[in-house]
User: Fold this.
Amino acid sequence: MNKNAFRQLSYGVYVVSTWDKGRATGCTANSAMQITSEPASIAVSINHDNYTNQCIQDTGKFAISILGEHSSPGIIGTFGFKSGKDNDKFEETEQIVRGYMPIVADACAYIVCEVIDKMETSTHTVFLGKVLDADMLKADAPMTYAYYHNVIKGKSPKNAPTYIAE
Ligand SMILES: Cc1cc2nc3c(=O)[nH]c(=O)nc-3n(C[C@H](O)[C@H](O)[C@H](O)COP(=O)(O)O)c2cc1C
Assistant:
C-alpha cells in the first residue's frame, strides 16, 4: 500500500472544541466533513486518547472553528500538540461563545453541533453532529491541510487520523 495516496485527499484545518465541566477545551483536527445538507450534519474523527474525545462524550456537543490562512499558526500548535487534560488551551487563545459553545475568535467561521450518533473504530470515535448554529467570523481563505504542510511547514502528531510515520 502506498500511503502517499492518502496525502492526495483534501482537508481543512479546524479546532474541535467543547466544554470540560464549564472550562473550554478542544483539539486541532483535520477530519471534519459535511455529511448531509438538510438537516445539516457534520462528522469529526477524534482519537480515543485525546482528552477532547472524553469531553465530547460528556457534553454531547462540539463546535468546529474553521481556521483561515491568516489565523495564527500558534493556535494549531497549542490545540494540536498539548492535551487539555493538563493545559488550559483557551487561556492563550482568545475565545468567543456562540450557540453556547466555545469558539476560537481568530477563525474565519464556526459550526456548532449536537452529537446525534457515533461510530467506534479501533483508535478513533467518529462523532456525527446535527448542526445547531453556524456563521462566518471574518473574510479569510479557509486554511487547507496542504497549505498547513506546504506553506506553514506544519507536522501532524500520532493521534491525527492522517499521521504517516516518517
Ligand atoms: C494538523 C493537525 C491535525 C490533527 N487532526 C486530528 C484529527 O482529525 N483527529 C484527532 O483525533 N486528532 C487530530 N490531531 C491531533 C490532536 O490535535 C492532538 O492529539 C491534541 O494534542 C489532542 O488534545 P486533547 O488531548 O486536548 O484532546 C491533529 C493535530 C494536528 C496538528
About this structure: The first strand starts at residue 14 and ends at 20. The domain at 11-150 is CATH 2.30.110.10 (Pnp Oxidase; Chain A). The chain has a mean pLDDT of 96.
